[in-house]
Amino acid sequence: MFDACHQDGIRIVDVRHEQTAGYAAEGWARLTRTLGVAAVTAGPGVTNSVSPIAQASFNGAPVLVLGGRAPMFRWGQGSLQEIDHVPFVAPLAESATVTDPSRIGAEVLAAARAALTPPRGPAFLDFPLDVLFSTAEVAAVEPEDPGRHDPDAAAIEGVAHLIDESARPVFIAGSNVWMDRAEGRLRDLAEAAQLPVFMNGGGRGCLPADHELAFARSRSQALRDADLVIVAGAPLDFRLGFGNFGPDANVVHLDSSPELIASHVDLAAAVGGPLDMVLGALAEVVSHTDDRKEWLDHLRATEAAKSDTAQAELRSVSRPIHPLRVYGELVPLLDRDAVVIGDGGDFVSYAGREVPSYEGGRWLDPGPFGCLGCGPGYAMAARLAHPNSQVVLLYGDGAIGFAGMELEALVRHKLPVTCIVGNNGIWGLEKHPMHALYGYDVAAELQPGIRYDLMMEAFGGTGELVEDPDDLGPALKRALDAGEPYLVNVITDPAVAYPRSAVLA
Ligand SMILES: Cc1ncc(C[n+]2csc(CCOP(=O)(O)OP(=O)(O)O)c2C)c(N)n1
Ligand SMILES: [Mg+2]
């Protein structure tokens, strides 16, 4: 495989641990909306890839993982790393072993198509050593176009009618709005029907954060007061209260394919089809209205009040540094097309609240599988996909432990990424809830004050330690301007807990 890439001029980006190969492929898939590919060795290479395969599955990311495999002709005799991967990968991904050398091309293409066809997700193939080293006559294979069908007109009319009748609608745009290239149609629909739009996970930036119909902080209130909630391109999972909204709310679910439509919620309507077509069709048939002004003003007032409340903490002068002060300093330094990646607990939750996205495909977090350690793979993908944008990796000090060695891969491949560690010396998202529940905590401490900046220096990048809030802005600016891998190690206050109960309310 490597030889073929080498011969054909396909860039190979190698990493320290297979999890990072998987996350880089997943990050690439989610940022570029094209296939991400990871190649890993047999046995432990595949077991180390299981978390990213699961994360890609949860995120509906089109990823193809290619694994080695012990030779077929000796199967059962105890070759090195002889294990059948398919049974433990199959619950997470379409998976198969390629046993016929003449079928390699066709099976790779079929797996790629399966990954890219909604419901998107990971696909896995492994190749026994003897199959890869055999030769065969192979006819050239061409990818087929799976085709697209117009959404059902009656279903579209039904949803449009619910929108027309609603006084307090809410529109939630999730990852598949972005993956289906529907962000332009989302804007058409929102503007035509004057819908307040909240963006979820990979849907962030589908409407720019400063668009007059883009909302964020008033979400729980909006969902409580709405008479119609339309969720597009996101599952009705824990992030959306499992689809239980206010008592008066009609719920509509739109997603890329019928398999993705929720079955645990009593839906007023649903459409499963490519969201660019679905939202485009809705934009054409909804009534154009200005009647929603009062509702929009009401939500905007809540947004303004919540934004005011955050100001004091964004400017906090306390020492150790308040984690929000990091974002108070960072956000004004970010370009509109900066890619921001979160890998951590509370530190990243604050970023989710305070870092705006102005374009789709510019925010990456682990999503509902929530696996820590994905950061460096995602950052690698972002840097390769967007060579001229700022790429910022926000790291909890717990999270950096999972794949911190990959900082070396960033340096070696000359991939300038600005890493910012919120170094509170604890697993904050575990410690604070434990404390709230039991009045004490266990297994939630980390060594305080670890010099992650020196770790980056040891690998050949640049690091800085920041303990004084006044040093933050200049350090972050140096890091963003450096054009090389850079790590700003910020000692933050372990006593500050993200107000989680407020989020759940
Ligand atoms: C692989 C993995 N292990 C454990 C967890 C559970 N977990 C979620 S957040 C968190 C704490 C993260 O701590 P840190 O990165 O230091 O961020 P902080 O909350 O302190 O800001 C843990 C352990 C997880 N999500 N993924
Ligand atoms: Mg921490």
Describe the structure.
The protein has 505 residues and is an alpha/beta fold. The chain has 3 domains: 131 residues, Thiamin diphosphate (ThDP)-binding fold, Pyr/PP domains (Rossmann fold), CATH 3.40.50.970; 147 residues, 3-Layer(aba) Sandwich (Rossmann fold); 190 residues, Thiamin diphosphate (ThDP)-binding fold, Pyr/PP domains (Rossmann fold, 3-Layer(aba) Sandwich). The protein contains 22 helices and 16 strands. The strands form 3 sheets. Strands 7-6-5-8-9-10 form a 6-stranded parallel sheet, sandwiched between helices. A 6-stranded parallel sheet has the order 12-11-13-14-16-15, with helices on both faces. α8 crosses α12, α10 packs parallel to α12 and α13 packs across α14. The protein is globular. The termini are far apart. It binds thiamine diphosphate and magnesium ion (MG). Thiamine diphosphate (TPP) binds next to α15 and α19.
Kindly state the mean pLDDT as a whole number? 96
Query: How helical, in percent, are the residues?
Result: 25-40%
What can be said about the biggest beta sheet? 6 strands, parallel
Q: Helical region count?
A: 22
Q: What's the structural blueprint in terms of helices and strands?
A:
Blueprint: H1 2-8, H2 18-32, E1 36-40, H3 44-47, H4 50-59, E2 63-69, H5 86-89, E3 94-97, H6 104-116, E4 122-128, H7 129-132, H8 153-165, E5 169-173, H9 175-179, H10 183-193, E6 197-199, E7 214-215, H11 219-225, E8 228-232, E9 250-255, E10 269-272, H12 275-285, H13 293-314, H14 323-330, E11 339-343, H15 346-354, E12 363-364, H16 375-385, E13 391-396, H17 400-403, H18 407-412, E14 418-423, H19 428-438, H20 452-459, E15 462-466, H21 469-481, E16 486-491, H22 500-504
Parallel strand pairs: 1-2, 2-4, 3-4, 5-6, 5-8, 6-7, 8-9, 9-10, 11-12, 11-13, 13-14, 14-16, 15-16
The structure holds thiamine diphosphate and magnesium ion.
